[in-house]
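User: What would this chain look like folded?
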Amino acid sequence: MARSTVLLLLAVLLLPTLASAQDQKLEDQFGEEITVSLIPMTVRAVDGRGRPITGLGPEDFRVRVGKKEIPVVGVDWFSSAEPAPAVETPGLPAATTVTVTEPRPAGKLVVFWVQADFDPTRVRGQLRLWPYVDEFLATLHPADRMAVISYDSHLHLRQDFTQDREVIHEAVYRGVLFGESEPGAGSGDISLVGSFDVQAATEAASPERALEVTADALAALPGEKIIVYLGWGLGRFGSFGVQMTPAFYPAVRALRRANIPVFVLDVTSADYHSLEVGLEAVAHATGGTYQKTHVLTGLATDFLAQAISGHYVITIDPDTVPSKGGPVTVELRDRKRGSVITRPLALR
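Assistant: Here's the prediction, encoded as structure tokens.
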């Protein structure tokens, strides 16, 4: 009887140890560490007036790689009132991994990029647009931060990030003018001053190179970033028409690495001009839009304000991508509802 009692007590004492050993054995057999790698894409679904189409799910998007349609595994909507998603974009091609990092600040970073010139028609275009800047600023979310950069003979930081609309309005006007000026002091905890390479800005001999310097300065800053390009042209006109300069391609790569779309407001007073080809190219390559402003200026700025008010991040599983890869196209299944704005992407 005493022996049975002792054995029973030993069994009770050893039971947790045996259970723990069994759990460890099961974990060793089946407890793999799984890393889920997804390919995210930032897209804007808009109607004909630029208004975002909200409430969309995976079933509303059609994604193709080459000719093969692949499933969308996730769709998330982000507006300026919400923190931007933490997405790393290490380089090109833009097949990236979703990583969980510290929360991003609410609101987006909007950089007004002013291309100045002595040409009277271009100056008039800038001044024509200037009154609409106030209306555009009024549409931005209170959490948004804005800065002003301009390019004439070289790159200038006119105004650091601030939420003061009046300060930005005046800085945009200063950006139209040639000459040096001290950058306006920013407000808040996000600043361009520390990452803005003054030497590289001074040596930037073309607007394309200046865009690359801008992208490098913005790359380290947190949150969603957008460039609003108030300008008249990119590229060089020659015997064979408009050609992109060698500096154009590094600029686009820098903008794409930093995940910065360029939304162009063309200030030229013409139905068509040769250098708009370059403006359309940088907008298309980075996932932005191109709008003329010489007629119905308010419609152009309203379209822009609506289009940047929110975006989707859609994700696909790389295991569903065909082995030979191919260009990625994204569209709405119901095309009558609107269109998708996104940058070109090729997977391989």
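The chain has a mean pLDDT of 84. If you want, I can go into more detail on any region.
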